Structures are given as structure tokens and as C-alpha cells.
Amino acid sequence: MLIRFEVNGSAVEVEAEPRLTLADCLRHQLRLTGTHIGCEHGVCGACTVLVDGDAVRSCLMLAVQAEGAKVTTVEGLSDDAELTPLQKSFRKHHALQCGFCTPGMITTAHALLSEEPDCDAARVREVLSGNLCRCTGYIPIVEAVLDARAAYRDNAGGVAGKA
Fold first, then answer.
1. Domain that holds residue 28
2. What is the pTM of this model?
3. Alpha-carbon distance 79 to 101, whole Å?
4. Do 132 and 65 lie in a common domain?
5. Which tens digits make up the pLDDT trace of 13-24?
6. C-beta separation of 121 from 143 below 8 A
7. What is the secondary structure of 34-52 as a DSSP string?
8. Which strands, in side-by-side order, build the sheet including 2-7?
9. Half-sphere exposure of 146 (CA within 13 A, CB side)
10. Are residues 72 and 111 in the same domain?
């Protein structure tokens, strides 16, 4: 099937079998390898991307379901000129170790902060509870998200992710 959608601001056309997941399409056909595949059951959150602004597990979504949608991967959250405030905050707080969960964490946190820039620690923990990390113990991750809130508040209505 021919699928047309937008990825990170660019229109794409992909030839894909109906059973191909969005995660596999992004990684193998579009070479956007920031979207990691962990459990392939929607449990770990490593494959989280934004679809029309909502955080979605791309391992559970078929590529054909993205027809006409706007998909944003971790690569699309910045313009490559420099790290986003959220990425800088993850670095500042040592909120990553092996880095495998980081793209899903950042994408999920970006979706949260875009909608709720004044969220509290309990809300951050609740939203990130669906993203598994085996290395950091979550405290630095929550601290990083809380520290990045100001950039999202300051950029209300601005370009997503480029706060």
C-alpha cells in the first residue's frame, strides 16, 4: 500500500505492507532510528512518537494508520542547531545512562509539557510511568522534566519542541 503522511515537517510517501508497524516503517524505511523498539507490546515506551500531537506507541500502530497524519519523532523535536531545553535539562540532571529509553522519555515529556507546562512532580511521574528505564531510577528524569517546564511556559503557543 502507498501511505502518505508527514514526518518531522516533511511529506513522505512510503510503500508498505498493511501489517507493517509505524515503528518499523520509521526505522527501516525512513531511517529515523531515534525511535527505539524495545518490548514490541506497548509496555516500555521506547518507541513513543507524536501523532497529531499525541504521544503514541509506534510499535502498536500500523503504518497505514498514519495516512494523512503528522508524525513527530525525537529527531523532529529540534532543528539540529542545538539541543532543546528539555534535552539540555536531561543532560544537566544526568537523566540518562544507556540512552535506550531516552527518545521515548523525551517525546512523552514533550507531549506532557506542551499540554501542561505547569504540571507537578506527581503528574510527571504519572505520565512517565508508562516509560520504562532500567538505569536511572527515575528521580533525575522527573527532575529534568520539572526543570524544563519554564521553557514550555515561556514558549506558550510557539513551535513545539523548539522552546
1. 2-77
2. 0.90
3. 21
4. no
5. 999 999 999 999
6. no
7. TS--SSSSSSS-TTEEEET
8. 10-15, 2-7, 70-72, 48-51, 54-57
9. 13
10. no
